[in-house]
Amino acid sequence: MFELTVRGEFSSAHFLRDYKGKCRNLHGHTWKVAVTVKGSKLNKIGVMADFVELKAHLRALLEKLDHTCINDLEYFKKYNTTTENIARFIYEQYAGHVKPLKMVKVQVWESDNADVVYYG
Question: Which domains does the chain carry?
Answer without folding.
Answer: 2-118 (3.30.479.10)
